[in-house]
């Protein structure tokens, strides 16, 4: 299993209970391409419940797309059950409680993307809950083609993802965003240019958050827009450019604090803070504790 390289998009943990009385098998491969998480699963009939309480507090709200290759899927969310058959693609909010039932042997691929990269404000309309994406969707065809090229046709067929993970992440996000835009229609967003610019900026932040020289001017230059245009894109948004970068850096720091014994100063530098004092101040503002004390309380 490859752990996500971006802790703001942590694949939702699931608890499965099999229905089979005969031989039981479960093949699962997880991959991470930047801020996109993927899970390929092949197994017997089972019920699966999302463990949202195990998702880190600072992980971004996420949307999942599930490609049902064989068998079928019954998705329950918000008191409603929706059935998806082989060849269908399910779209649903992975930040709200949900569960699955796979009534028979199945093979599926789950793609998880931070919702903020798909929709302005990081919220998808309720009308997209448990939506089945038709075969005519250009976004769906693009997504399926990318997955086929990167992962092969199913769990265990290929040794692992190929190509540049950062480039593949951007392409997967672009496909998922096109798919969502198609489902919403062209009138869903009154300011698509601002929303697109925010999404592109967020993608860049995910790639370059460890760079201490990452300034608003540098971001604007990379996106080929003026600084004024970049700031204008965030007017009225739920989160500013600076607060988005801070959230991404702190989420990255959380993973390092929990999984290593690196000194706080090294953690700070590794996530883009040239000044350890600034990192400690930002961490304490977010958690109420210094990084060292927070780590002791979490890890003993």
Automatic annotation (TrEMBL):
Domain HTH araC/xylS-type: 199-297
Record InterPro entries: AraC-bd_2, AraC_XylS_family_regulators, Homeodomain-like_sf, HTH_AraC
PROSITE patterns for the chain: HTH_ARAC_FAMILY_2 (PS01124)
Keyword Disulfide bond: no
Keywords: DNA-binding, Transcription, Transcription regulation
UniProt entry tagged with the keyword DNA-binding: yes
Signal sequence segment: none
Name of the protein this chain belongs to: AraC-like DNA-binding protein
GO molecular function: DNA-binding transcription factor activity; sequence-specific DNA binding
Pfam families, A to Z: AraC_binding_2 (PF14525), HTH_18 (PF12833)
SUPFAM superfamilies: Homeodomain-like
